[in-house]
Structure formats: structure tokens, C-alpha cells
Amino acid sequence: MPKHIAVIMDGNGRWAQKRHLPRSIGHAKGLSSVQKIIQYAHEFNIKCLTLYAFSTENSGRPKSEIKDLTSLFDKTITNESNKILDNNIKLNILGDISFFPKSLQIKISNLIDKTSQNNGLTLNIALNYGGRTEITQSVNRVLKKKKILKITEKDIQNNLDTKNLPDVDLLIRTGGERRLSNFLIWQLAYAELFFENSFWPDFKKCIFINALYFYQSRNRRFGKLNN
Ligand code: FPP
Questions:
Q1: Which of 39, 94, 159, 214 has the fewest C-beta atoms under 10 angstroms from its C-beta?
Q2: Is residue 10 annotated as part of the catalytic site, yes or no?
């Protein structure tokens, strides 16, 4: 079983457009797939799940879509807090949430604090996250801490937003595109990549299970030989 699964939840907009609905409905429907995948992660005893909810590049979308997404994140934090606590989930955020309104930042920070001692599923939500920014920030953190001339891989690893978490084993991307889109580019170095054509709002258990079968069928050599 993969320890760490990362997901690019793509296709909310196209799901809505196909039905002549506003994109915001696609995102709202995407939220129900988020609830489903958390449930599947519990069922299959996955230790760590990372969801790409908003990239640094998404900040270039129309103001109205950013507003809709922000209010969806806000409602979700308010409505799902108890469920997250009851289910022993440890919440982390990857990325820079100072982009979002102060009230949402406070709600998120409070929930992170409240769940910090939980030891069930580690749920990372990437919000205003970009892989290149994360690596650059990590290098700057190292330079600030250590007045040294040489930076090691460990230094960078230990100063990423995902410090203390295992590398990603399996990436799932819905929506038909086959690219990484600046997501966890350091942590995905040896991940198995599973691409699914259907849109994120249509995510269901058989797709999750297909991804797990795909993962289990891979021979992971990490650049070495089998024996
Ligand atoms: C990508 O689809 C999806 C997003 C930018 C938003 C993801 C948000 C959610 C699934 C909603 C709630 C999430 C949480 C964690 C509370 P797209 O809009 O790029 O789709 P398109 O490629 O079809 O336009």
C-alpha cells in the first residue's frame, strides 16, 4: 500500500461546462469527491493524503472564481471541523495562505492547532501552493538558519512545507491531462503516476482502487536493480 498519495483534482470546470452550469458548481461538486477520497483513505489505511486545492498559478484566475473558491474553502473549514477532529485527522497546509482573507487564515490555523496531536490520517491541503516556490523558500530558510556555503539535499528536504512527511508514492491526476503542474515537484521524484480521464467531480471508489492496483503492479527499483 502506498504510504503517501497525492492528488491533482482536475476537471471541476469542464465537468460544469459540459452541463452548462457555472464553474462554481463544478468546484462544489468537487468538494463531495474530496469527502469521498478522505473516506477511501481511511478505509484503506493510507497514512498521508495530499490534495492540490489551489495553485500559485490559480491566483491568476478571474476574481469571481477566486471568491467562489475562497468561500467554498471557508464553508468547508466551518462545516467539516468536527468531522476532522472526530476522525483523528491531522491537518496540514502546504503553501502560503496569506493570500486568503485573514478570517479564513485564522480558522485554518486554529484547526491545524487543534488537530496537531492527532495520529490518524495526515491530510495536507495545498493552498496557494507551487512546487518551485516551495523549493526556493526551503533554500532561503536553510540560508537563514545556517551561514554555510554548501546546501545538502537533506537541508532542502527538511525545510520544505512537507518536512517530516514521506515522499509521495502514488500521484493520482484526474481530468485527462498528463502533467505535474508545479505540484510537489521535489516529493514526486520517484512517485508512480496514475492518470484518470474522468473529471474530479466524478471521482469514485473504483477509480481509487484502480489506482491502488496500478501502484501494486509497479516494480519500484528506485534506480537500482531488482536483487
Ligand atoms: C481544478 O479544476 C480544481 C481546482 C482549481 C479547485 C479544487 C477545489 C476543490 C476540489 C473544492 C474543495 C476543496 C477543498 C480541499 C475544500 P479546474 O477548475 O482547473 O478544472 P478545469 O481544468 O476543468 O477548468
A1: 39
A2: yes
- Per-residue model confidence as pLDDT tens digits over 71-111: 999 999 999 999 999 999 999 999 999 999 999 999 999 99
Task: Give, in order, the Cα–Cα distances in Å from 17 to each of 8, 14, 178.
Answer: 19, 5, 21
If you take atom 5 of ligand 1, which residue's CA is the nearest one? 54
The CATH number assigned to the domain with range 4-130+170-217 reads 3.40.1180.10
| Residue nearest (by alpha carbon) to ligand 1 atom 7 | 53
The tens digit of pLDDT for each residue in 51-63 reads 999 999 999 999 9
**Separation of CA 91 and ligand 1 centre (Å):** 19
Ligand 1: which residue has its CA nearest to atom 3? 10
Are residues 8 and 183 in contact, defined by beta-carbon separation less than 8 angstroms? Answer: yes
Which residue, among 168, 123, 173, 163, has the nearest Cα to 2 in the 3D structure?
168
- CA nearest to 188, candidates 4, 53, 42: 4
Query: Annotated catalytic, 58?
Result: yes
The cell for 42 is: 481511511
Cβ–ligand 1 distance for 84 under 6 Å, the answer no
**Nearest atom within ligand 1 for CA of residue 15:** 23
Return the exposure string of 163-187: e unless at least 16 CB atoms fall within 10 Å of the residue's CB, then b.
Answer: eebebbbbbbbbbeeeebebbbebb
Task: Of 125, 143, 226, give the one whose Cα is nearest residue 183.
Answer: 125
